[in-house]
Specification:
It catalyses: [protein-PII]-L-tyrosine + UTP = [protein-PII]-uridylyl-L-tyrosine + diphosphate; [protein-PII]-uridylyl-L-tyrosine + H2O = [protein-PII]-L-tyrosine + UMP + H(+). Its cofactor is Mg(2+). The chain has 962 residues and is of the alpha+beta class. Among the domains are: 196 residues, Beta Polymerase, domain 2, CATH 3.30.460.10; 146 residues, Four Helix Bundle (Hemerythrin (Met), subunit A) (Up-down Bundle), CATH 1.20.120; 99 residues, Alpha-Beta Plaits (2-Layer Sandwich), CATH 3.30.70.260; 131 residues, ACT domain (Alpha-Beta Plaits). 56% of the residues lie in helices and 10% in strands. An 8-stranded antiparallel sheet has the order 7-8-10-9-13-14-12-11, with helices on both faces. A 4-stranded mixed sheet has the order 3-2-1-4, sandwiched between helices.
């Protein structure tokens, strides 16, 4: 933030510039000396002006005023530069026609609004071709602007050049549309305006509108196709400033208006809609100016690291279970939604004027079904208008408020896009959706039929949400509209996630994802409670943002809404159960040992029926896939499939449709078919090396790679080998390690990753029957280019191989990594440790969660190693910034850890690992190490005592569990 004490009032800017010019010698003729005289003072004036603009922004909270002030100050600075150059350096006392120039602001600068880091777009307008005088003037001005470190976009053209370029280039045409005269020859600018309107604009509105909308589509696709991305681009993202700019360009071009307020008189906006336009524009400008001030650069992406700072600068505080940053981002997304509404209004008006082609519904192919017939609308209040569903008159919703629901039901039933006029009327009629409409049986019947439609209603539900009807009809849904969760795991707002998850569910049922989800495709048709599944999908995150656990609170919402939706008692109970346990299957699959019968027994005890198991599997898949791109992986698919089959076996009394042994044999047969160059004896020997849980938990693609990897190692005579592979689509790099088993192998692997700054987001850890370990570590990608990423992975692999051969000590490498206090702490995750002896028959289960960071897994495994705990199984999961690492451990005698004092020692050691990551913990880093050492000493004493007391026949870890 700039120092307000150095700020100057804008009224003083002109005086300061006047004094500066007065002090420059009239006879000065050296451009270099002029810059030396101008630049330091101009820089001081600009910095002081920016400081004043920031002070006013913080005090008055007016984004337009801030951007306008910065623009006015820049106008004055450029005018001073122009005067210095034209009246001092290249003075023309009796200028000829060739010695005329007009300086014009274009683009964003032409609109009269500038953010602190905005580009300065200038047009130097000439009467005809450039002369030596005009070239010198332009060059001298630009050198001063460049010395001031301003980002300048410039063009030097005659009027004829501008018209010719504008006709052929839509970007130049748009820049000219927003041109604003600054100083110089006004007659030149007036000629440009008149001829531009007559020779370029007239008769080309349809061409311009279509080009601008195509340009917008390409832009938002590049920056993120949804306006509900949790790290939005305020300038170029969907629902951002550029969308509002595009609306005004289109309207200005089509309606031939000068100012935005003229659009009300032109009939494009109502007075209320124009106030909404101004409110959206001001808010986005306010956010953008704060972003530039806070970062000191032209930052347009509202990243997680920046969001809390902007929320604080805007004055948001925590309230109603939402953090300050979440309240701010909800405001942002509501504004983005309003921008979408305004876009629809403008597009509808352009279409009415035949300046834009009517859209087609994205499910247009279904219009050509074999038995297609024109829709026979059942209600007199509706009509087909330009191929879309519209209302017969503006009183249709007042006559029957249920029409607000029926509108979307008819849209889905007949595959009809809704006319923008109908959407606009629905938004204006939201007050009609009161308590009586919400409990109306017909309204609820129509809504549930829409929700469970086999026409893939995602598009219609999203439209229903954007008009405000969905949140008004289901107030609990309205509470999570535009709500973001301040974490790195979820890519979309809560309402958008719910609608996307319904879309995934519909695609699974329609068979569109059969190749990707064969098990879900097979069982979804056998589900008896289809309606309950869809309602649960709609409600599973509806209680996000409340103080209570959202799963439990969501189940209460489901029990309330079920009867209202027309569900019977059994359906309502099923929906409530699914909502309450919608995370159970995912967490069990990713953080529990699925080869442990106790895991399956515990999970089956909660599920209790095959029907619930089917429902939960399909819901879990749709939920994960709707989180965002790259979240669903083949590894998660395999884990869920394994958990499903193992639980199916228990719930069916051991009579699974595909018994475990048969599933293993089928998996091996499929792999055998892919390894055609292997002999039968060679494959049988290889298959026997892996325990059954390997075949059930590893996806087919990885199994094939592992087989070839291990065979190549054996042929080369190597016992310690590594392989690396990048996965650009998931943004990760996979590191595969094959080595003889080693007591500290996991610590060595994680330490090598930590030493390179690698962040482990997943790990598959298996031991073979002949004493080898096959581990696949997944790291967050650090470099964009594959060759750079593979070099980094190669360094990690080399370090692992050398450490396993005893050539280096991993601890020495890790000691050189950056200290924790140097890491940014955008997120705060309270660390937690659960010690459970009931989840496994043989081991103690340590579930550790906390803020993820490079080196965390190494620190945890090293701490457990110092406690003389034997890690028999590890399960690594990362949910954005939150790490959930589960370790199945025994003491050195192979028994569970049951002593309270021993458990307390483990807790102290684990919490010490996270101590440096807590607020104010940088100083405690040394204390954390000391605490870990103390814990290790306590553990050593306890272990010696245990060993002395243990019977010689103390149980050893079961083979194959490492």
């Amino acid at each position: 933030m700039s120092d307000p004490s150095s700020a100057i009032d804008p009224s003083d800017t002109q005086a300061a510039l006047g004094q500066l010019l007065a002090g420059i010698d009239q006879s000065l003729s050296d451009p270099t000396r002029l810059r030396e005289r101008l630049v330091p003072e101009l820089r001081r004036i600009i910095e002081a002006g920016r400081a004043e603009a920031e002070r006013r922004l913080l005090a008055n909270r007016d984004g337009h005023a801030c951007a306008g002030l910065i623009c006015a100050q820049m106008d004055a600075v450029i005018r001073a530069i122009y005067d210095a150059v034209v009246k001092r350096l290249y003075r023309a006392d009796n200028p000829t026609a060739a010695e005329q120039i007009a300086v014009v602001a274009t683009g964003g600068y032409g609109r009269g609004l500038l953010a602190p880091g905005s580009d300065i777009d200038l047009l130097f307008l000439l009467p005809y071709k450039q002369t030596a005088w005009s070239e010198s003037v332009v060059e001298a001005m630009l050198y001063v602007l460049w010395d001031l470190k301003l980002k300048v976009g410039h063009a030097t053209r005659s009027v004829a050049d501008c018209l010719r370029e504008g006709r052929g280039d839509m970007t130049i045409r748009t820049a000219l549309l927003e041109s604003r005269f600054l100083f110089g020859d006004r007659a030149l600018f007036d000629e440009l305006e008149t001829r531009f309107d007559r020779e370029v604009v007239q008769g080309t509105a349809a061409e311009f509108v279509e080009a601008k909308l195509k340009e917008r589509d390409a832009r938002v696709q590049k920056s993120g196709a949804s306006r509900y991305l949790v790290e939005p681009n305020v300038k170029d993202g969907k629902g951002g400033l550029r969308d509002l700019n595009t609306l005004f360009w289109i309207a200005k071009y089509t309606f031939r208006v000068k100012e935005a307020e003229d659009l009300v008189e032109a009939g494009l906006f109502t007075a209320e809609e124009f106030r909404l336009f101004e409110r959206c524009d001001e808010f986005l400008w306010r956010v953008r100016c704060h972003m530039h001030f806070a970062t000191g650069r032209a930052e347009e992406r509202l990243s997680f690291g920046l969001q809390p700072r902007i929320a604080e600068r805007l004055g948001y505080g925590a309230r109603g279970g939402l953090a300050a940053v979440e309240r701010f981002m909800k405001s942002y997304f509501l504004i983005a939604k309003d921008v979408g509404d305004l876009t629809a209004i403008v597009c509808a008006e352009m279409e009415a004027r035949h300046a834009k082609r009517p859209p087609v519904l994205d499910r247009w192919l279904r219009r050509f079904k074999q038995h297609f017939r024109a829709p026979d609308l059942e209600a007199d209040d509706f009509r087909i208008h330009t191929g879309r569903l519209d209302m017969r008159d503006d009183a249709a919703f007042e006559r029957d408020p249920v029409n607000l629901i029926r509108l979307f039901w008819l849209s889905d039933r007949h595959d009809l896009a809704i006319h923008p006029d109908a959407s606009r009327l629905a938004t204006r009629s939201l007050s009609l959706i009161g308590p009586m409409v919400r409990v109306d049986p017909e309204a609820n019947r129509l809504f549930v039929e829409l929700l469970t439609s086999q026409n893939a209603p995602e598009t219609v539900l999203r439209h229903m949400n954007e008009t405000g009807v969905l949140g008004r009809f289901v107030p609990d849904f309205g509470r999570i509209v535009a709500m973001m969760q301040f974490n790195m795991y979820h890519h979309f707002t809560v309402d958008e996630h719910l609608i996307r998850s319904l879309g995934v569910l519909a695609k699974i049922e329609a068979g569109e994802l059969e190749d990707e989800h064969p098990l879900a495709h097979r069982i979804v048709g056998t589900i008896q409670n289809r309606r309950a599944l869809y309602v649960a999908m709609f409600l599973h995150d509806i209680a996000k943002g409340r103080k209570d656990d959202h799963s439990i609170a969501g189940a209460a919402v489901a029990r309330k809404l079920g009867p209202r939706f027309g569900l019977d008692a059994a359906e309502t109970s099923t929906v409530a159960w699914l909502v309450e346990h919608h995370l159970l299957m995912s967490m069990t699959a990713q953080s529990r040992d699925l080869s442990d019968p106790k895991t399956i027994e515990t999970f089956a005890g909660v599920v209790q029926s095959l029907e619930r198991l089917k429902l939960l599997l399909v819901l879990t898949i749709a939920d994960i896939k709707a989180v965002g791109p790259g979240v669903w992986t083949a590894w998660k698919a395999t884990l869920l499939r394994t958990l499903y089959y193992e639980t199916e076996m228990v719930l069916s009394g051991g009579r699974s449709k595909i018994p475990r042994t048969d599933r293993v044999r089928l998996i091996q047969m499929r792999l055998r078919e892919q390894l055609a160059d292997w002999t039968a004896e060679e494959f049988d020997a290889y298959a026997a090396r892996h325990y059954p849980h390997y075949w059930l938990k590893v996806d087919a693609g990885r199994q094939l790679k592992n087989a070839r990897f291990i065979r190549a190692a054996a042929e080369a005579g190597n016992t310690v080998v590594t392989a690396t592979e990048t996965d650009l689509s998931r943004g990760v790099t996979e590191l595969c390690v094959y080595s003889p088993d080693h007591p500290r192998l996991l610590a060595i692997l994680t330490g090598a990753c930590a030493a390179s700054g690698g962040n482990i987001v997943d790990a598959q850890i298996f031991t073979t029957a002949d004493g080898f370990v096959l581990d696949t570590i997944t790291l967050s990608r650090a470099f964009e280019r594959d060759e750079d990423e593979l070099r980094r992975a190669g360094r990690i692999a080399t370090a692992i191989e050398r450490a396993l051969k005893g050539e280096i000590r991993i601890a020495d490498l890790v000691a050189d990594r950056h200290p924790a206090k140097d890491r940014p702490r955008t997120f705060q995750v309270a660390p937690d440790l659960s010690i459970d002896n009931a989840l496994s028959a043989r081991e103690t289960v340590l579930e550790i969660s906390g803020l993820d960071r490079p080196g965390l897994l190494f620190d945890l495994t090293a701490a457990l190693g110092r406690l003389n705990l034997n890690i028999t199984s590890a399960h690594v999961a990362t949910f954005g910034e939150r790490a959930v690492d589960v370790f199945y451990v025994t003491d050195l005698t192979g028994t569970k850890v049951t002593q309270p004092d021993r458990q307390a020692t483990i807790r102290r050691a684990v919490m010490a690992v996270f101590e440096a990551d807590l607020p104010g913990g940088g100083k405690g880093r040394r204390g954390g190490k000391d605490a870990a050492k103390d814990a290790a000493k306590d553990a050593a004493k306890a272990t010696r005592k245990e060993a002395e007391q243990a019977a010689p026949e103390a149980a050893a870890p079961a083979a194959g569990e490492a």
